[in-house]
């Protein structure tokens, strides 16, 4: 059953608020609208990139019926805290997971992540945590905003590294979902995050080339104009 079906089956309908993340694709917010509800955006935890429990509680109102938690990049959300908010506020907590993968693929990526964690400089590597499957290896290129990250990305692409910006525009900034809300961690993540390649099929030489390309930059670049 899809997200729309789950919401309708749970009785979510016209006028009901559903709390969703703005860091990610618009498909979750679109599903809420299709079910007749109103998407309400809450901020994310800066480590997991998933909904932050305190932020969810802060935006919940008497009209809130549900929360949709999306697990990001292979790192699970803190369902203990989010579930507690749901129980305390009487909210339905739905999870949107990521595609299942073979044990071998996951363990290879975890080994690659450990290698990168110990060698990358000039970027902030993801915080290691139990259960992280590294569907994407997302680093941060902190600085004065998006130009730093984008300049860094262009530089390493020029060295043959196939990186990508995971979230270019938060959902609450899209014209069809524009909201006057303050989501500082969402905005910061959208400006700083960069997904580096970490496929299980990568060789040690390819990983070394990735590390060399990143570390050769010597940290942040000047903003691109």
Feature tags:
single chain, about 220 residues, alpha/beta, Aspartate Aminotransferase, domain 2, Aspartate Aminotransferase, domain 1, four-stranded parallel β-sheet, two-stranded antiparallel sheet, 8 helices, elongated, transaminase activity
Distance N terminus to C terminus?
A: 46 Å
Give the CA-based shape.
Answer: elongated
Rg, Cα atoms, Å: 19 Å
Strand order across the largest sheet: 2-1-3-4
**Number of helical segments?**
8
Strand-residue proportion: 5-15%
What name does CATH use for the topology of the largest domain? Aspartate Aminotransferase, domain 1
Mean pLDDT rating:
91
Largest sheet: 4 strands, parallel
Helix content: 25-40%
Give a verbal description of the structure.
The structure is a single chain. The chain has 225 residues and is α/β, with parallel strands linked by helices. The protein folds into two domains: 3-96, Type I PLP-dependent aspartate aminotransferase-like (Major domain) (Aspartate Aminotransferase, domain 2), CATH 3.40.640; 103-215, Aspartate Aminotransferase, domain 1. Helix content is 36%, strand content 13%. The chain is built from eight helices and six strands. The protein has helices spanning 3-9, 27-34, 53-59, 79-89, 103-117, 146-157, 184-192, 204-215, and strands at 17-21, 38-42, 64-70, 92-96, 137-140, 193-196. The strands form two sheets. The protein has a four-stranded parallel beta sheet with strand order 2-1-3-4, sandwiched between helices. A two-stranded antiparallel sheet has the order 5-6. It is elongated and about 55 Å long. The N and C termini lie far apart (46 Å).
């Amino acid at each position: 059953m899809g997200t729309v079906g789950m919401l309708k089956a749970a009785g979510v309908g016209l006028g009901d608020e559903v709390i969703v993340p703005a860091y990610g694709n618009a498909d979750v917010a679109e599903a809420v609208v299709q079910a007749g509800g109103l998407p309400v955006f809450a901020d994310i935890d800066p480590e997991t990139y998933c909904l932050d429990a305190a932020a969810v509680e802060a935006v919940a109102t008497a009209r809130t019926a549900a929360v949709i938690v999306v697990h990001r990049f292979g790192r699970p959300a803190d369902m203990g805290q989010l579930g507690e908010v749901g129980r305390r506020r009487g909210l339905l907590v739905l999870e949107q997971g990521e595609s299942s993968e073979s044990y071998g693929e996951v363990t290879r990526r975890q080994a690659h992540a450990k290698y990168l964690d110990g060698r990358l400089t000039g970027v902030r590597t993801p915080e290691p945590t139990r259960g992280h499957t590294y569907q994407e290896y997302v680093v941060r290129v902190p600085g004065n905003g998006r130009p730093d990250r984008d300049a860094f990305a262009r530089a390493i692409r020029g060295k043959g590294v196939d990186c990508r910006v995971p979230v270019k525009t938060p959902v609450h900034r899209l014209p069809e979902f524009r909201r006057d809300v303050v989501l500082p961690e969402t905005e910061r993540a959208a400006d700083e995050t960069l997904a580096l390649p970490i496929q299980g099929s990568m060789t040690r030489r390819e990983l070394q080339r990735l590390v060399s390309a990143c570390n050769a930059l010597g940290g942040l670049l000047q903003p691109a104009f």
